[in-house]
Write a structure and sequence with these properties.
The chain is an alpha+beta fold. It contains 9 helices and 18 strands. The chain has 2 domains: about 200 residues, Pseudouridine synthase, CATH 3.30.2350; about 70 residues, Archaeosine Trna-guanine Transglycosylase, Chain: A, domain 4 (Roll). The chain starts with a helix and ends in a 7-residue tail after the last strand.
Length: about 280
């Protein structure tokens, strides 16, 4: 993306594993400052899980650590999935990008090191078995709707353990980040052929946030990064925020968040208005 757009500042909202495919939200230039509001949104995946085979990376790219026939039924699998819906805890895999003592876990893993990792709270809203192929090494295709920070490879391995055996992630495709789905995504080739046409405006990127429209003196104050009493900017809105503050033409000026009884900007995109 840096090469295609000639941009030095490029950011993304949520890492995809090297072998995974699907939706990746990318910000260019000043829009990279908005990625924090996209990274923490819910996500959906379609995953293929292979039972009876464990790998050192919990996915198909790793070395096989264990192989044991594991015949099971779809009913057994669906029964096991119920324990993984809701608020659960996961231990991040060693191949994740989490940093411990300043080093990413996958860097330590590549150096042959293993370290203790604290469990993390995540949420799985749906875990649906879409396809099941029986056999001594059965495979299942599942759809997962989950919170940001959920490791699907860990979910696959934990499902195998819950069923009395082992498992790894065979394939992974991210279907959705927030309200942005596969149907809106573009391949690198299609982006290269239509550089301007595939871009979203900053306001469109934050379409999942509550929108606040301002004009006149209020707009001028927003472009200067002013803080306000909550009612002065938000009126009677009860939402917790954050809020996408736009002008009357729909252009994103800033993002505001509540701070006690007031609101203050966390990102100001608009150039300051002349005094």
């Amino acid at each position: 993306m840096r090469k295609l757009y000639g941009q030095r500042r490029v950011g993304h909202a949520g890492t995809l594993d090297p072998d995974a495919t699907g939706v990746l939200l990318v910000g260019l230039g000043r829009a990279t400052r908005l990625m924090r509001y996209l990274a923490d949104t819910g996500k959906s995946y379609r995953a293929r899980i292979v039972f009876g085979v464990a790998t050192d990376t919990l996915d198909a790219s790793g070395a096989v650590l264990e192989r044991a026939e594991m015949p099971l039924t779809q009913a057994q699998l669906e029964g096991a999935t119920r324990a993984f819906v809701g608020d659960i805890e996961q231990i991040p895999p060693m191949v994740s990008a989490i940093k411990i003592d300043g080093r990413k876990l996958y860097e330590l893993a590549r150096a042959g090191q293993t370290v203790d990792r604290a469990a993390r709270h995540v949420r799985v809203d749906a875990l649906v078995v879409e396809e099941f192929v029986a056999g001594i090494y059965p495979e299942a295709t599942v759809r997962v709707d989950c919170s940001s920070g959920t490791y699907i490879r860990t979910l696959a391995a934990d499902l195998g353990t819950a069923l009395g055996g082992c498992a790894h992630l065979g394939e992974l495709r991210r279907l959705r980040v927030g309200s942005f789905g596969i149907d809106e995504s573009h391949s690198l080739d299609s982006i290269g052929a239509n550089l301007e046409g595939v871009l979203l405006t900053p306001a469109a990127a934050l379409r999942d946030l509550t929108e606040v429209v301002v004009d006149g003196e209020l707009q001028r104050a927003v472009t200067h990064g002013a803080t306000f009493a909550a009612r002065a900017l938000l009126g009677d809105r009860a939402e917790a925020g954050p809020f996408a503050v736009v002008d009357e033409h729909g252009e994103l000026l800033a993002v505001y968040e509540r701070r006690g009884a007031g609101v203050k900007p966390t990102v100001v995109l608009a150039p300051q208005a002349a005094p």
